[in-house]
Specification:
4 strands, alpha+beta, N-terminal domain of TfIIb
């Protein structure tokens, strides 16, 4: 389960839906795995506005990952040299060199995966098991 996924998950218990502390789910006893991949600049540029930045920083701290900057990067921060319209050299968007910020963000969001562990709700404390990289969100009958 990629860390990016945690940016879109909340507790499934009905009473937690209205409580702000039910998001994000907090990883516990997490066994992490890095699955290396090429940096995808267009994807990073498109996902930036959708990220809950403070929550993502919290998850990184809880997992002992490198600290992210206090404010989210801008799309131009993701390109080496900070020039997103590099048409003078004739380089297309796919040929642009990713900045260190883009590489770090890509590592956290898309390459870092939770293989085993738990996701814990900050509101009710319910634990969702993660096994072989898949989180189980099925609730027992008394919690539905």
């Amino acid at each position: 389960m990629k860390l990016l996924t945690l940016n879109f998950l909340t507790c499934a218990i009905k009473t937690c839906k209205t409580n702000a502390s039910s998001f994000p789910l907090h990883p516990r006893d997490a066994e992490l795995e890095i699955q290396e991949a090429d940096v995808n600049l267009p994807f990073l540029k498109n996902i930036l506005p959708r990220l809950m930045w403070e929550e993502l920083r919290t998850i990184c701290k809880e997992l002992g990952l490198p600290d992210l900057p206090p404010t989210p990067p801008t799309p131009t921060d993701l390109i080496s040299g900070g020039n997103s319209t590099d048409t003078t050299e004739g380089r297309t968007q796919a040929e642009q060199e990713p900045s260190q910020t883009a590489k770090d963000l890509h590592r956290v969001l898309l390459e870092t995966c939770i293989q085993e562990g738990k996701l814990v709700c900050g509101c009710c404390g319910h634990e969702y098991a993660v096994k072989e990289g898949v989180a189980n969100f099925l609730l027992p009958g008394h919690l539905v």
